[in-house]
Design brief:
By secondary structure, the chain is mainly beta. The chain has a single domain (about 1-150), classed as Sandwich (Jelly Rolls), CATH 2.60.120. The protein is about 5% helix and about 50% strand. It contains 1 helix and 12 strands, in the order βαβββββββββββ. The protein has one helix spanning about 20-25; strands spanning about 1-5, 35-40, 45-55, 60-65, 70-75, 80-85, 90-95, 100-105, 110-115, 120-125, 130-135, 140-150. A hairpin with a 3-residue loop joins strand 2 (about 35-40) and strand 3 (about 45-55). The longest helix is centred in the first third of the chain and has 8 residues, at about 20-25. It starts with a strand and ends with a strand.
């Protein structure tokens, strides 16, 4: 996992060849962007914009991916995102190749909770189990962008 300020993305540009295009797109956005999918570089780099309400920890499943990594950016609001290893998690929905996701029950105690708010980004790779959309204090509306980048 990488967690950093969005304006410091260049420090991580060498981590993946599609990062320059991904962050060029991300840094051009504002809250007026419509929900939906946005091809950035064909099927290899795709942005997704979603508006939703955060929820309590126990109501949010964990997830992991195999073919794509995530760059997650909150444009409006803030949320907590659980992060930890896959080992020991209980599968609640087997891997779905068409969505590149496997879902897990939340562990009793997460290894870490990160706070995502405007100006930050988090990168999750296949060995990073993560739990987006957890409320900080109470439920709030969030606008979030997730850029999926193909690995390997």
């Amino acid at each position: 996992m990488i967690l950093d300020q969005l304006n410091n993305w260049q420090a991580h540009a060498a981590a993946h060849p599609l990062f320059p295009q991904a962050f060029a797109w991300l840094t051009s956005l504002d809250a007026s962007i419509a929900d939906g999918k946005y091809p950035i570089v064909g099927d290899d780099l795709v942005g997704g914009v979603n508006r939703y309400r955060t929820a309590p920890y126990a109501e949010k499943q964990w997830e992991a991916h195999r073919l794509f990594g995530d760059i997650q950016v909150v444009l409006v609001g803030e949320e907590l995102c659980g992060h930890g290893p896959l080992a020991g998690l209980t599968v609640t929905r087997a891997y779905q190749s068409e969505k590149d996701v496997e879902k897990y029950a939340p562990p009793a105690k997460p290894e870490r909770m990160i706070r995502l708010k405007p100006g930050l980004f988090a990168v999750f790779l296949p060995d990073d189990a993560h739990q987006p959309g957890v409320q900080v204090v109470g439920p709030i509306d969030v606008i979030k962008v997730v850029v999926k980048f193909r690995l390997g």
